[in-house]
Here is the input.
Amino acid sequence: MTDDLPDRPEEHIDDDDWLYRRLPPIFVKPDGSISDKLFMRNSEANRNKKEPDPDISVDWDRYATPEQSLALAERPTHGICALQARLPRDLDLVVTHTPDRGRGNRAHASIRGNEGPRAKQRCFLLAEAAGRHLLIRPSSPA
Here is the structure.
């Protein structure tokens, strides 16, 4: 996964393919569900607030296992949850393969377009689905 990436065009991600999202421990609620903030970023207008992320970073299962995805993030206390590519597309979002050549991550992909009046609702729906596919549970820092 971290080998030098040849200059290749982006590849098509099928609806049945899995996307892995890094999960910081802070976004796991006491009841075990995942906070919708996992799919948000710090607000550009007010850094103390969150807003829906219009370009969500994920890894594609064609080129990474959950363990490889977590290792590349270099955040050992984080976990990994998963979504099938079909879900964001069903929410009118775009799933695209966006290899990160700078980090040597051929698995990198993006969920794009989460903007507008339905953006917060989409964050909630993505988090709800990701919570059903918690592959690596985050741990508390030692």
